[in-house]
């Protein structure tokens, strides 16, 4: 159904007079009359009653008027949102990121970027790697900060983290300066739930070390993992923390394996053009990476 003709119908329904409506719309009376005939033919019912050379909206017309106004408003809103999305100065960036980035990197990135582009809006999603990739695949986010690198996606490395073994302060390993993961096979483990990137890395490291540890609890955030380690529930593979974010009840033992590390990176769908505001954020990240990292 033609959007212009819907608009013409709304004006005609409000004026109930062909001459007045045509003058307001800047079209000829015959053009408006033909459009009304086409619309009534498509609807399959008359939309007006003809009373004394005037039009009076009938029950069918009142129903169409309600939906026509709603449709015009929705299309207008969609056009406005698309225009905003395509504007690098006032658009919207839909960004997904890992739970572990919520306390440092991502807030710092957003603060710095908003200082340069204060009119850009954000729709944020925080979750596990699997959930982030699902949203990326579904077109619900434009950019994602995640780990490990998803196969087949563009990838811009942001920074790397060494992984270590978190143990309770009184644990027998607590004073070790370095540790092989193979030495921990008989320890109970606390880990993130399946679907989290760090859990995937932990499982791969354990398999490479030839161990299959018992997982006593699966958490959704690294601070929860570290808190349960401090409480004596088990040990865990976690990134080496910044000193001001380390759990005081935990000792962090560097792992000897050269593969005990993870890379955090920025990614997006390869088959979709990034909206200008999202492209602007990518450029900002790469130009300021040394300060952000």
From TrEMBL:
GO MF term set: DNA binding; DNA-binding transcription factor activity
Question: InterPro entries of this UniProt entry?
Answer: LysR_HTH_N (IPR000847), LysR_subst-bd (IPR005119), WH-like_DNA-bd_sf (IPR036388), WH_DNA-bd_sf (IPR036390)
Alphabetically list the UniProt keywords: Activator, DNA-binding, Transcription, Transcription regulation
SUPFAM superfamilies from the xrefs? Periplasmic binding protein-like II, Winged helix' DNA-binding domain
Would you say which domain of life the source belongs to? Bacteria
**Does the record's keyword annotation contain Nucleotide-binding?**
no
Which Pfam families does the protein's record reference? HTH_1, LysR_substrate
> Do the record's keywords include Ribosomal protein?
no
Q: Which residues form the HTH lysR-type domain?
A: 1-58
Any one cellular-component term (Gene Ontology): protein-DNA complex
Q: Which family does it belong to?
A: Belongs to the LysR transcriptional regulatory family.
Among PANTHER family, the record links this protein to:
HTH-TYPE TRANSCRIPTIONAL REGULATOR CYNR, TRANSCRIPTIONAL DUAL REGULATOR HCAR-RELATED
Function recorded in the entry: Required for the induction the katG gene for catalase. Involved in the response to hydrogen peroxide.
Name of the protein: Probable hydrogen peroxide-inducible genes activator
